[in-house]
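Worked example 3 (structure in, sequence out).
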C-alpha cells in the first residue's frame, strides 16, 4: 500500500481507489490505513476523505540516506569504471575547504597513475576538486574564492575570473577536466556524486598519464558520467516515484 502511494501520480488516494488497484476489500484497506495512520505513515483529510503519505515516511527516508556509506556504494562502480576505461579510478570526499581521496582502483597495465589516500587538496586544483567546487551552492563557492588560491603546479588556475567561468562550464556540462593542475604529468576527468539535496557528497574521477589521458578524455567522460549517475541514484539523487517503486 505504501508503494502504491509512492508510485501514484496523485498526491492522495481514496479507499475505493486503493481497494481497486490492490484487489483488496474496502474493509481490509480501511483497517490497514487506520494502522498506518496511527503510526504516522499516512495522513487523512476529513474534507476530501482521502489519504496521503505522512511525515514519518520522510523521516525514514532521510535516516536511510544518512546511513549510506558512499565508499561502500561506490566501490563496485569504481571497479567497473576502471575496467571499462583501463585507467585508475578514484573516489574523493570533501573535508571543509579541501577534498581527500578515500579510495581508488588501478588497472592491470604497466604504466598507470595512483593517488595517495587521505591527503587533502584544495578545491580549485584538479578535476576532482573542481567537480566539488562547481556543484556547491553559490554562497559556498564565493566564500571559497574569497580565500587565497595557492598554485600546486604552474597549470593550477588561480585567476578568480577564469576559475568562475570554468566552474560555470563544469556545472553545465556535468564533469570537470584537468591536465597537470594538481600533479605535473597527470590528467583526469571527474564528476560529482549528488545526494537527494542535489549536494555533492563525493566525486568520482578517471585519471592517468597526461599524454595518454588527454586524447581519451571524451570517451572516458561518457563512462564516468554514467557511473556517477548510478551512484548518485543510490545516494537518493533525482529519484522519481517510478524509480523508487
Amino acid at each position: 500500500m505504501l508503494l502504491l502511494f509512492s508510485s501514484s501520480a496523485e498526491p492522495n488516494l481514496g479507499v475505493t481507489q486503493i481497494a481497486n488497484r490492490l484487489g483488496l476489500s474496502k474493509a481490509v484497506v480501511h483497517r490497514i490505513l487506520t494502522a498506518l495512520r496511527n503510526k504516522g505513515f499516512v495522513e487523512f483529510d476529513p474534507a476530501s476523505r482521502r489519504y496521503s503519505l505522512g511525515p514519518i515516511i520522510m523521516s525514514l527516508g532521510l535516516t536511510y540516506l544518512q546511513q549510506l556509506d558512499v565508499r561502500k556504494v561506490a566501490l563496485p562502480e569504481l571497479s567497473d569504471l576502471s575496467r571499462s576505461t583501463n585507467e585508475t579510478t578514484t573516489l574523493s570526499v570533501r573535508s571543509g575547504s579541501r577534498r581527500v581521496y578515500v579510495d581508488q582502483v588501478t588497472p592491470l597495465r604497466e604504466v598507470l597513475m595512483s593517488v595517495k589516500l587521505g591527503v587533502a587538496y584544495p578545491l580549485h586544483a584538479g578535476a576532482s576538486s573542481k567537480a566539488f567546487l562547481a556543484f556547491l551552492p553559490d554562497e559556498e563557492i564565493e566564500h571559497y574564492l574569497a580565500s587565497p588560491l595557492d598554485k600546486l603546479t604552474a597549470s593550477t588556475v588561480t585567476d578568480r575570473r577564469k576559475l568562475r567561468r570554468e566552474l560555470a562550464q563544469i556545472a553545465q556540462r556535468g564533469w570537470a577536466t584537468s591536465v597537470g593542475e594538481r600533479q605535473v604529468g597527470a590528467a583526469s576527468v571527474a564528476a560529482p556524486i549528488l545526494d537527494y539535496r542535489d549536494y555533492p557528497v563525493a566525486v568520482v574521477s578517471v585519471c592517468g598519464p597526461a599524454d595518454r589521458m588527454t586524447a581519451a578524455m571524451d570517451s572516458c567522460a561518457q563512462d564516468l558520467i554514467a557511473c556517477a549517475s548510478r551512484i548518485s541514484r543510490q545516494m537518493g539523487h533525482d529519484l522519481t516515484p517510478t524509480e523508487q517503486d
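Notes: The longest strand covers residues 200-209. Strands lie at 42-45, 50-53, 88-95, 98-105, 120-122, 176-179, 186-194, 200-209.
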